[in-house]
Design goal:
Helices cover 42% and strands 10% of the residues. By secondary structure, it is an alpha/beta fold. Bound molecules: cobalamin (B12) and iron/sulfur cluster.
């Protein structure tokens, strides 16, 4: 995980462990380190935090540490989304995690094999250790960030909206204490010349006024640069002006689809080109005050059909050249969202190895497109979005130096070349490789050679530590877990064990 993108939770867990008197080493793996050298030798308990795209590496690491005698636990997005699979490779699989749960696990500290214990707190934690308590872990991570150094903070957990594809659609919104927030911000002002803070709230500014009051009380105007993910419906002009006064330099609103999610983007029943115009006006208004706006779009939703969703995205870019578009392919991350049950029931989820599940590889069979058609559209819209012409227009439309160059660098790097290369490769293999096509068409579950080789190459030395069979997973494990009925209490989906 890039040092500027790390999550708060590993630092939090490390702090909770130290509080209990444990000696803790935190290692942030950004992909550049020689991990085997950085890992401590004599540990008795290892927590690993990972997204699904790095799950196979985490399985290999768990295996390595277990052979050295350690007990292992996994937490974070992969553990929340694929607990049944992770239980095969870890002694503990943790969902919602609070201090009490960490202390319980540390007290138990036992091997649970072949199937690990899946534990979760009842809800998201009500408080987290502040920046001053986490500072030594934050500082060591920031040292790995190249030029710009960003500190992650949270002002809330969960979300009041219920976008059916989202992991937070069923997690109640909970603001965190604003006094703790003020303390964190003041502490950072004392530590860094010009702090940069990324709010990791799934949806920043739901309780807009209390949040901004706290920032205004703690931070002299313009002393900290802020980045936040927020929905368009929360970003009225008055609010955006207030964000500008308080140093918000980048906003990442979710647009998702031109045909769905009207509530989220405050476009109501407006669809298609009407929605494009409305969203574009809104985004252009934000860009008058905030120099960097990344709009998040999802392709492959069931409501999408034909070339229109892609063409509308291009029209949006023409109308809002200053925004940087980020595209995600609809992905069903295990049991992240209730909607995934629908896909699993319809047998539409493919067992792509976890390594490829990063929102770039859609793991659901598209409803209204063949795979080849879908990739053709993706290649087309990606090339258009990051074409030299579009990058130049974006450059002209952005007012400030860092956002300008950030857009250029992102446009020319992974967003364009990485993705176009990947989609083109998929398109080519679908045409030329029969086994590859059969996998995509669900005629076989055998993982295509291309994917196996890519995992082997990317894992390097850790390939040897990958447990047998770990490259495969049951894409319908969530559905099966719901269907099992407990013989003790007869409630489906509940297991007395
Ligand atoms: C903020 C955020 C980001 C930020 C920060 C990333 C980060 N390190 O957390 C940024 C913008 C960088 C980001 C990027 C990406 N993200 Co993101 N992101 C989120 C978001 C909105 C909030 C996560 C968060 O911090 N919540 C607050 C914490 C406190 O709560 P939590 O995550 O629920 O964690 C609880 C438990 O899981 C547990 N826990 C968490 N970590 C740990 C660690 C340990 C050791 C333990 C024991 C427990 C534990 O305790 C917490 C409290 O109960 C979530 C969606 C969401 N609404 O949750 C997506 C989400 C995590 N992201 C997702 C994805 C796919 C990505 C990208 C791959 C997308 C992409 N292609 O660009 C990239 C990855 C970039 C990279 N590899 O460098 C997916 C992950 C799915 C998965 N199973 O892997 C999610 C769930 C969104 C989704 N699509 O559904 N993301
Ligand atoms: S607004 Fe964002 S965080 Fe909230 S449910 Fe929808 S997608 Fe998830």
């Amino acid at each position: 995980m890039g040092a500027n993108f790390v999550s708060i939770m590993p630092q939090v867990v490390a702090t909770w462990c130290e509080e209990q008197g444990h000696e803790v080493t935190l290692v942030t793996y950004t992909g550049r380190e020689d991990l085997l050298r950085q890992l401590p030798e004599n540990v008795d308990f290892v927590f690993i935090s990972t997204f699904t795209e790095a799950a196979l590496l985490s399985y290999a690491l768990s295996n390595l540490f277990r052979t050295r005698g350690a007990v292992t636990a996994i937490g974070g997005p992969h553990a929340r989304c694929y607990p049944q699979d992770a239980q095969k490779y870890f002694d503990y699989v943790l969902g919602f995690t609070d201090k009490t749960l960490i202390h319980e696990v540390l007290r138990d500290r036992d091997q649970h094999r072949p199937t690990g214990l899946n534990l979760s707190a009842d809800q998201q934690p009500v408080e987290l250790p502040g920046v001053s308590e986490r500072w030594k872990f934050i500082e060591q991570t920031l040292k790995k960030a190249p030029f710009i150094k960003i500190v992650p903070l949270l002002s809330s957990l969960g979300c009041p909206y219920s976008c059916e594809f989202c992991i937070d659609s069923t997690v109640p919104y909970r603001p965190l204490d604003t006094n703790a927030m003020k303390e964190d911000l003041r502490f950072l002002l004392g530590k860094l010349k010009r702090p940069r803070v990324a709010w990791h709230d799934p949806n920043f500014g739901v309780r807009f006024d209390p949040c901004m009051d706290a920032i205004e009380e703690a931070v002299p105007p313009g002393r900290i640069d802020f980045i936040a993910e927020s929905t368009l419906s929360l970003l009225s002009e008055d609010r955006v002006k207030r964000l500008q006064r308080n140093g918000f330099k980048a906003l990442l609103p979710g647009i998702e689809s031109w045909f769905e999610m009207g509530k989220k983007s405050k476009t109501g029943k407006k669809n298609g080109m009407d929605k494009v115009r409305m969203v574009s006006d809104h985004v252009n208004m934000i860009l008058r005050y905030v120099p960097y706006v990344q709009t998040n779009h999802i392709f492959g939703l069931d409501g999408d059909e034909g070339p229109e969703p892609f063409e509308l995205t291009k029209r949006f870019l023409d109308l809002s050249p200053g925004s940087f578009p980020a595209y995600s392919m609809l992905s069903a991350f295990g049991q992240a969202a209730p909607l995934n049950l629908k896909f699993q029931r319809a047998n539409r989820v493919l067992p792509f190895p976890f390594h490829f599940l990063s929102n770039i590889q859609m793991n659901i069979k598209p409803k209204n497109y063949s795979w080849s058609e879908f990739y053709d559209h993706l290649i087309d819209v990606t090339k258009y979005s990051y074409s030299p012409r579009m990058i130049f227009q974006r450059f002209l439309a952005n007012g400030e130096t860092i956002p300008r160059w950030l857009n250029v660098v992102r446009g020319f790097s992974s967003e364009r070349y990485g993705r176009v290369k990947y989609f083109t490769q998929m398109r080519r293999l679908l045409k030329t490789d029969r086994q590859f096509r059969s996998f995509f068409e669900q005629e076989t579950t055998e993982i295509p050679r291309y994917f196996v080789e890519k995992v082997r190459k990317d894992l390097g030395d850790f390939w040897e530590w990958l447990p047998d069979g770990a490259i495969r997973h049951d894409p319908n494990a969530y559905l099966s877990s719901q269907q099992k009925t407990c013989s003790y209490c007869s409630i489906p989906g509940v297991n007395a064990a």
